[in-house]
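Running log. JK asked me to keep both predictions on one page so they can be read side by side. First protein, sequence followed by its tokens:
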Amino acid sequence: MSSSLHSLTLPEILEEHRRSRPQGVAVVGEGRRWTYPEFADRVQRLANALEDAGVQRDDRILWLAQNHPGVLEGIIAAGALGAMFCPVNWRQSADELAFIIDDLEPRVVIWQAGEIGGTVLAARERASFRAPLWLALDGAGGYEDFIGTAAPQPRPRVPNADAPALVVYTAAFGGRPNGAMLSQRAITWQDMALIDIQDLSAETCFLNSGPLFHVGTLMVTLAVFHIAGTNVFIRRTDTEAIAQQIHEQRCSYAFLMQSTCAELVALNREHAYDFSCLRSASVSPEWDAMVQVQDSRSLFGYGQTEAMGPVSWAYYGWGHNQGRNGRTGPVAQLRILDEAGHELPPGEVGEICLRGPTVMQGYWRRPELNTQRQRDGWHHTNDLGRREADGSLSFIGPKVQMIKSGAENIYPAEVEGCLRQHPGVADAAVIGVPDATWVQSVKALVVLKPGAEATPEALIAHCRERIASYKKPRFVVFVPALPRTPQGAIDYAALDAAHGGGGYPGGLTRGA
């Protein structure tokens, strides 16, 4: 592989690990283990196979599958080719996946038959774009054969650290998702911050139990790879699989929601599994007795997919910060700007704006949105914040309406749009109501057309068929009309007050 004198790309990092960590275990997954030299060979073969299949610079590779070592392999191979790899949210509906196929127009689609195959194939039929190659993840003639039969020899390539290598679709804040394009430079800079903040090393064994279409898991996967640790992959969040892998692989770190920790406590009441290797935040007395409890409050911060994750952390200035979201780290500049683009003084609320090496290259095929979000040399986050007197940050909340369910962001505009597609619905508004397990649940206030009939169950089923299940309303209430502001917009604050809304990100009431 040819290289620039001053570059540092993912394939170059892997080639260095081949030489410096010849016995280090890179990946455990799918019943196999690969050392760094073995993993480097797989990625080299994958890059060659993709190139032979016609993948060129700026082409897209779509991953329609669950967690798998192929996600890490694919991102690195795409970086070698100058292509872009997109791991998509596999929990979405066929219509949502079809939209992404048409929007991304991938050269190659790697897809999984087990568990999600029916939805994926339905999306393939509904999409207008026909990808040249659909490659099955499982079975004969699929992904493993694609790699195994490829030429092993390295080919001369000059990877570009500044070119997009990763596309991550964000939640549909405007009614449709947008693909944030992230460069290898963005990834490697964020890696270096995470290695420090989360105390990662070559001894780290990270369990990829969270979704790899979500930057919260993926950024740690990439940082662990960068520092030559071990990544352990399981297909999806499964309590027994998590317990088994922590116990057998001696995982020191994992992406776990509190609800999953409670399930693990219930599963392990007889102490059949040893979790003493795992570093974790305090969750409950039962959980804490099983793991190495660490104060994780210093890991709290603020960030976005569009910036490859957090850009501020409580870690910086821990114990002294006035703002709950800490201080800007070494990967970004942060400003609080007003609508005219002027910086606001400490104590005043404005839009959080960013720039730096981790900020995305823009959204795929969204020129007008890119112009708006990247004006005046800053990435405008659409989030509100306040710089405190000591320089630390307090995140206030999103400028657009957002509901938080577990680790997922749900934008009411998308759910409302889905509800309005029902023939009996005249109008709809969606709010979030507090949920002890999931932070918030989705509640829909629906106005029916004159003479139309519908049940809450029918509308919930309507949404389940068209959007990801976690986005569907849990509650549906029929109302004669929706309250409006003097400007004619839906008065969400009034809906929250009347229907129990609350628990929004930032702790504010909608419309406040």
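And the second, directly underneath as requested:
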Amino acid sequence: MYKVPLFTYHAYNESGGGSLYRSRYDAGVTPPAGTRIVTLRRPGGGIGGPVKGHPDAHDPRTPRQTFAHRDAPFIAWLEGAGFQVDYCTDLDLHDSDQPLHGYRLLLSVGHDEHWSAPTRRHVTAFRDRGGNIAFFGANTCWWRITVTADGTTLRCAKYPPGAAVDADVDGLRGGPDHWWETAPENDLTGVSYRNAGGHWNGRRAALGFAVQHADHPILAGTGLHDGDLLGAEHALVGYECDGAALRRDPDGRCAATGADGTPAGRGTGVRL
């Protein structure tokens, strides 16, 4: 099952003059201080319209926060390789866990940043039933959003009381809808954006990921070995990365400490 990140696409969608980063309220609604509100009943949402953010210097053909930029290339590879795949949105998983019944794997691809509490609960239940989840992205499950009962509007309280409206909300403490401050996303994803970072404007340095645990079954047949550097020629690290609090074992391999919500002892590092 491939989950299209509809919530995040609408969070960055500026059709009508606002996004979850710029709008303050909808007409006739008085939200709590610092809450951003957007409607799903507008053009865009990953498939057109103005989008917040810098262009991708490595692929300027399409805006970053769009289906064409992130999902379409991955889906073309999946289907071209003959994988059997079905599709849902995070709004589908907000409403019910039924879309995951009968599946062995859930794919989260690209920039899957905004999650509702029901979406996270249903995905976690899928994992706890023995389902597998593959995260091919970062900054995942960073903001908690609330969906109105009719499923048409998203709210996110990003700003702590008294914060300036132009503050860097990712780094502020006290944001009511920061997942990591109340229920760290590490418990589900294994890593968090707060332990890594990103490069948003211009070309990235030619950095890749160091391979460890190359004998793990997931790397079978890849030809990779411990210590190999993966993806440096494509500047693979960025535009945003997640990580975990870690230590190095006597062999120099990274393992999670568990201090930030990542299950202790898991071999981990950072991910694109």
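Observation for JK regarding the second prediction: Confidence is low (pLDDT under 50) at residues 24-29, 267-272.
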